[in-house]
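During data preparation, we tokenized the protein backbone, and the record follows.
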Amino acid sequence: MRKNRVMKKGLGRATLEFKRLKYFIAVAEELHFGRAAARLEMAQPPLSRQIATLEKEIGAQLFDRARSQIRLTEAGAVLLDRARDILDDLDSAYREVELIGRGGAGRLRVAFVGSATHGVLPSLIKSYRSHYPHVDLSLSSMNNAELERGLIQRDIDIAVARPSLQGDEFRSMALHHEPLILALPDNSALAGQSLPIKLADLDKETFVLYPRRPRPSFADHILKVCEGEGFTPADQIFAQDYQTAISLVSVGVGLAMVPKSVSNSPRAGVLYRSYEGNNPGTSLTVHARRDNRKPQVLQFFDIIEKYTRKRT
């Protein structure tokens, strides 16, 4: 209780000191107590008393009152420069804090699965930046397990997962759904055939799956898609992330099933083809902690809502 009283007393004193600096600046700029009082919309006697109190507390005379028109003393001239700087800094701090409080500044940490960079995510990020150019946007790539851990440990604010994260502590919003396609080595016989590729005919092919761990993962989603066509790939090569998987495809190690948006970014040595058969597609979902009420987070979800509404 005593601590609160001391804090309130300290804040009250600080407020009074800032007021006195404003009074001082007005008198120093007008060099006339009457005009300064009118500018401050107050009576002259209390203004004179406030300046006298300020001089007593500082221990220096700020105005030379011996002449018909008052003048600043040397000490007063120094205080005028410093007082202007102090009040400018305070005003700037208030404006900066207000901007952060409204979500117009501050920091937003967004993490995403690697394959999301080929689809709608870049456009979404661009839209957010255009609305909130002063927010420090931190971007990083993670797998689903890292995304979940990052949210729980508060290391990130926003997670863009494929297909989604589970947990009652997360708020979620669907971002995008798209079909699966095949990523094939450009020297593959499949890449050159004119007939439609049937998923059921790929049971003898080597499938490059990702991520290797943790499981279950997108790799298990692809294996389930294959099971829907009545087979399990005879040969499975696991990569830790999408970039490694597509690199293995480019050098002819095998084929991969990837989101269609990946084909928007051509890769040397890789051809993309649609296929016939079981294709449940794949989704991107955006998550944040329910208790993360940062205005930047809420505004990011608002941008998602507007963005997805515009696309439908």
Observations:
- The longest helix spans residues 2-30.
- The radius of gyration is 32 Å.
- Residues 1-14 have pLDDT under 50 and may be disordered.
- Residues 210 and 239 are 5 Å apart (CA to CA).
